[in-house]
Structure to design on (334 residues):
């Protein structure tokens, strides 16, 4: 049994070698010697460090790939290609590789997320690196995420493993995802520096401004990124730095190459749906355009879909992987 330096472990040792009825005087002057061996086994339990803690420890010393400057000081990866790749949706979590897993990206650590049971925890949000394909936000052209066809697909056949493209492969993946409260706030005004910044969208998403009758929250497992996720993921560049990008309305980011090109959530090859509906009418939700700006359009249009989810706090990182594209982080998933 290994005893840590400066620590003690107390044993009580009782040795009986005389019969209680034996005459004690007959044993005077008799010596007794023996060797005592203590055999003790203790199962080693490897300490579990939640992914959220691992990321927080990295961010504490790395100001290049992380930022925590949104209104709630959430920890976010930033830049054109930070080391935030993680293997997920693996057919074999004991042998994680490009052939057995998908590559996802870690958006960051979000504080005090409300779970389905009402409790709050800091949770890690991840997003699929590639699109599942061009899909309508809602095929009935109604911007209510709680009933939207994309929501029911992502949390139905996609989640259950029967969807045609990229469906979750097993219970290990499904059980790694936390069911949380997703905010569904929106806005009608977003085209000026007084109402269209990433910080404004962060507030809109968590607000109660919605089209008449629409819900302000939805509880479930699989969603999409928000406009603010896209905005806060930029690192900026030499001409327009991060602070300048965050001071510019997302609606005009198509003209700011430093902002969009130094943002790993930007995809120049396709438009991307976000979770935020527009409150100005019943038909539209916000998208990240392939040219880099954020705007809204009718939800029956088919745009790129990158599924997003929050990992359970019990999930931890293995010692394998550095977060790069060639060596993604590996999750300890049961």
């Amino acid at each position: 049994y290994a005893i840590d330096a400066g620590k003690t472990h107390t044993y009580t040792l009782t040795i009986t070698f005389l019969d209680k009825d034996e005459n004690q005087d007959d044993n005077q002057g008799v010596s007794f010697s023996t060797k005592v061996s203590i055999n003790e086994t203790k199962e080693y339990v490897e300490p579990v460090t939640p992914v959220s803690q691992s990321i927080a420890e990295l961010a504490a010393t790395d100001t290049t790939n992380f930022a925590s400057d949104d209104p709630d000081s959430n920890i976010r990866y930033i830049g054109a290609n930070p080391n935030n790749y993680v293997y997920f949706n693996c057919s074999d979590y004991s042998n994680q590789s490009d052939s057995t897993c998908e590559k996802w990206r870690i958006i960051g650590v979000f504080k005090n997320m409300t779970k389905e049971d009402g409790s709050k925890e800091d949770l890690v949000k991840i997003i699929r690196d590639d699109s599942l394909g061009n899909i309508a936000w809602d095929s009935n052209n109604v911007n209510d995420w709680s009933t939207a066809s994309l929501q029911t697909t992502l949390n139905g056949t996609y989640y259950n493993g029967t969807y045609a493209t990229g469906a979750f492969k097993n219970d290990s993946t499904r059980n790694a995802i936390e069911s949380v409260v997703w905010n569904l706030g929106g806005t009608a005004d977003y085209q000026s520096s007084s109402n269209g910044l990433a910080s404004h969208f962060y507030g809109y998403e968590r607000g109660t401004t919605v089209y008449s009758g629409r819900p302000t929250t939805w509880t479930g497992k699989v969603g999409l990124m928000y406009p603010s996720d896209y905005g806060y993921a930029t690192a900026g560049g030499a001409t327009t730095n991060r602070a300048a990008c965050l001071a510019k309305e997302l609606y005009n980011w198509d003209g700011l190459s430093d902002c969009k090109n130094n943002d790993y959530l930007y995809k120049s090859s396709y438009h991307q749906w976000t979770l935020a509906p527009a409150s100005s009418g019943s038909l539209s939700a916000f998208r990240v355009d392939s040219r880099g700006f954020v705007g809204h359009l009718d939800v029956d249009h088919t745009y790129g879909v990158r599924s997003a989810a929050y990992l359970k706090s019990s999930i931890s990182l293995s010692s394998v992987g550095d977060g790069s594209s060639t060596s993604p982080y590996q999750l300890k998933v049961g």
